[in-house]
Amino acid sequence: MTQQTPTIQPIRIFDTTLRDGEQSPGVALNHTQKLEIAHQLARLGVDVIEAGFPIASPGDLEGVSRIAREVRGPIIAGLARAGRADIEAAAKAVELAERPRIHTFIATSPIHMSKKLQMEPDAVVERAVEAVRLARTFVDDVEFSAEDATRSEWPFLARIFKATVEAGATTINVPDTVGYTTPEEMRALFAFLKGELPEHVILSAHCHDDLGMAVANSIAAAQGGARQIECTINGIGERAGNAALEEIVMAFHTRKDHYGFETAIRTREIYRASRMVSRLSGMPVQPNKGVVGDNAFAHESGIHQDGVIKARETYEIMNAELVGREAAVLVMGKHSGRAAFRKALTDLGYDVPEDRIKEMFARFKDLADRKGQIYADDLRALVDSRTDIP
Ligand code: KIV
Ligand code: ZN
């Protein structure tokens, strides 16, 4: 059966590592560290860098301002609540950017409006419209977000989004602030909003990972009509974090045949960005994390190792080099098979005759049972303990 190639649609990547990512408990980046990450994000090819929340502190304002002055390429955004002081601070912080954006937001769910804001829905719409109008007096590029959108009523979302688009917002962001939604719901919500809003509006998704579905929800949003996805390197962020940039980008890249989306990300810069963010934020990456985890390209079982030696595609859906890492690693341990053992010896420069491999492999298994993982030095010791091997 022949499969039809879908038309490829571009997806903008809005990186919020320096804003929502920095809201990870325990993370505080100084200006120099933020600038270093921002330069790497530009090398990576993100479309938008959300550089911070300028009203949060004079330090944050200065941090955003330095990035706006020094980093060229991506749009530089500053976050602002829907109020004059926030918007003025954001405007000041991004004023020297090549392509400045103000991102303003207000909550729209019944629980946030009644308990947190203590405002009536009509007043929330009015505040949002005023905020967007004010932001437009400073910049042409204004994004509006409805905080806790996925727990908001859909007709109310449509109402506030239409009003803010009329006031001048060009990007409309739909955050799953508390990581509550599901892929099916997200796709349907975006399809609904797409039908309600003018063609020129860019719909954006911003997902949190409380139920481990941030990446799936972001992808579903794109299938429903989102053309911008907000995410962070290594998925760092508030509570359980945000959607992980590297996973979304590589899902679109690897399954372009299925999704029909592409991003402008230079995938070979992904690993470097991941290492840098981990080092500077002090947040380690879990070993089994997709794309950037230590084990993401490591093969342990004999069956897998044998397959990978014969053809990498047997157990690899993407090459490590494509994301800027070294080629896949065969982990030597008790699950390793003879093919991997022979290859490891050859890679270390030994030419072991086939009739010796059997005996040495038995000793290797004994050692692996006792020791767990076997390293190059263990293999050298194993070979060098014999005098009849060249
Ligand atoms: O999660 C959220 O709702 C946010 C908004 C400020 C966009 O981070
Ligand atoms: Zn968020």
Automatic annotation (TrEMBL):
Cofactor or coenzyme needed: Mn(2+)
Swiss-Prot/TrEMBL keywords: Acyltransferase, Amino-acid biosynthesis, Branched-chain amino acid biosynthesis, Cytoplasm, Leucine biosynthesis, Manganese, Metal-binding, Transferase
Single GO term (MF): 2-isopropylmalate synthase activity
Residues involved in Mn(2+) binding: 20, 206, 208, 242
Annotated pathway: Amino-acid biosynthesis; L-leucine biosynthesis; L-leucine from 3-methyl-2-oxobutanoate: step 1/4
Domain of life: Bacteria
Protein's UniProt keywords contain Magnesium: no
EC number: 2.3.3.13
Signal peptide feature range: none
Reaction(s) catalysed by this chain's protein: 3-methyl-2-oxobutanoate + acetyl-CoA + H2O = (2S)-2-isopropylmalate + CoA + H(+)
Start and end residues of each Pyruvate carboxyltransferase domain: 11-271
Quaternary assembly: Homodimer.
Protein's job: Catalyzes the condensation of the acetyl group of acetyl-CoA with 3-methyl-2-oxobutanoate (2-ketoisovalerate) to form 3-carboxy-3-hydroxy-4-methylpentanoate (2-isopropylmalate).
Assigned protein family: Belongs to the alpha-IPM synthase/homocitrate synthase family. LeuA type 1 subfamily.
Protein name: 2-isopropylmalate synthase
Naturally occurring in which organism (per UniProt): Deinococcus oregonensis
Gene assigned in the entry: leuA
Positions spanned in the full protein: 1 to 390 of 516
